[in-house]
From TrEMBL:
One Pfam family this sequence matches: Acetyltransf_1
Molecular function terms, GO-annotated: acyltransferase activity, transferring groups other than amino-acyl groups
InterPro entries the record matches: Acyl_CoA_acyltransferase, GNAT_dom
Gene3D superfamilies: 3.40.630.30
Segments forming domain N-acetyltransferase: 1-152
Superkingdom of origin organism: Archaea
Name of the protein this chain belongs to: GNAT family N-acetyltransferase
Entries under CDD domains matching the protein: NAT_SF
Length: 156
């Protein structure tokens, strides 16, 4: 398993995987153009974050996005692990474990990184079990959001 930073040429496949993950975990259909533009925006501007991909024999086996959150309480960045997707034929083969080990090791080498975080859809029990097995702990926080449509109005 090779872990590497994604490059713009990976963008279409990452966007496709994001759409598959959204449907699989939330039965949510993503707008293809918006999804591709969102992925490319990250791949072209590392201040927004970066994607990592896991490859096995040259095939993309998994991916995730890392974004930053500044913690004023800890005076450092928390790396948010997002858009985790493992291609079905590679599941239960240690793909995410390898990615998480890489992320954790890299984060621990950086003095400005104070921790790792992720959120998971509450009914995604296999993912929750996987994250616990890696040593992550459920937090006491509940997430709230208000999302906007393209015209700035409240989205459904």
């Amino acid at each position: 398993m090779q872990i590497r930073f994604a490059v713009p040429a990976d963008g279409d496949l990452i966007a496709d995987h994001n759409a598959e993950m959204a449907y699989e975990t939330e039965v949510r259909l993503l707008d293809n153009e918006t999804g591709r533009n969102g992925v490319m925006s990250v791949l072209e501007d590392q201040e927004k974050g970066w994607y990592l991909v896991a490859e096995s024999d040259g095939a993309m086996a998994g991916q995730c996005l890392i974004t930053l959150e500044w913690s004023d309480w800890r005076n450092g960045h928390c790396w948010w692990i997002q858009s985790v997707y493992v291609v079905p034929e590679f599941r239960r083969a240690g793909v995410f474990s390898a990615m998480y080990a890489w992320i954790s090791a890299e984060a621990r080498c950086r003095p400005d990184v104070v921790g790792l975080r992720l959120y998971v859809e509450q009914d995604n029990l296999p993912a929750r079990k996987a994250y616990r097995s890696l040593g992550m702990k459920k937090t006491p926080y509940v997430m709230y959001e208000e999302m906007f449509s393209e015209n700035g109005e409240k989205a459904e």
